[in-house]
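Would you kindly consider the sequence and fold I have copied below?
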Amino acid sequence: MSVFPRILESRLMFHGSMVALVTPMHEDGAVDEGSLQQLVDWHVENHTDAIVSVGTTGESATLNEEEHCHIIRRTVEMAAGRIPVIAGTGANSTREAIHLTRCAMEAGADACLLVTPYYNKPTQEGLYRHFRAVAEAVPVPQILYNVPGRTACDMVPETVERLSWISNIVGIKEATGDVDRAREIIQCCAERMDVYSGDDAIAMELMLSGGKGNISVTANVAPAGMHAMCAAAIAGDRDAAVAANRPLEELHRILFVESNPIPVKWALHEMGMIEPGIRLPMTALAEQYREPLRAALRQAGIG
């Protein structure tokens, strides 16, 4: 595969705190574009380093293809070149993943994030061929996403290493929660792709080990704090990273007390940022978790 003109320089665009942005919705489940614009502006103002549009946190699973592409397009327009936009375009059908990735490229997304195919549980060879097919079909920088806890599909480091030789595969969001796994990928692939944390709780250690950023749920509610922590960790300043991370540690935990994005959407509503809309089968945060989440927000200096 030939090297596309912006591939090498694009890796520098995707370092630091990258928010896995929620998709704000009205109570009836319709997308709230007014609140989306406010969120994009807020992240620019608070120095978030990139926005991930329509990933897991953005409720990609309950958006149809038309909505999926529309939200990516509108997010790119709202960002207006002020902040890179990475579009979630993964699917468990290779044809659908190619379609969504092409749609995102045409909408102006700076890169695409592709989760491992879920439910159908492909082999490692199937994973390699899936991601290679998408990369060859759509000349946009692409980031792999491994989150076996949600997909029931684990892409092992050997498969990641094979994929790292494809020129427009520029990174991987490693969300196993295993720092040693991430270190193994960094050791074998860092010259060709960047490694990002997909787990806020271990993000600091992963970046101090050579990772280049964090695709973050916590950044939805604490963008400035997450930016500061990521910048310090990437720079290798452990003391500064620990100091920035300490007020956020309880948020990292409690934002996953129920399935993401249930807690983070409730928190943003509590902060007055969005309406309470969330699509079934996701439901509002259970009552017993609300005061602990309020306390975690206060501990982080929010609300």
Remarks:
- The longest strand covers residues 169-174.
- DSSP finds 14 helices and eight strands in the chain.
- The two ends are 50 Å apart (CA to CA).
- The chain has a mean pLDDT of 96.
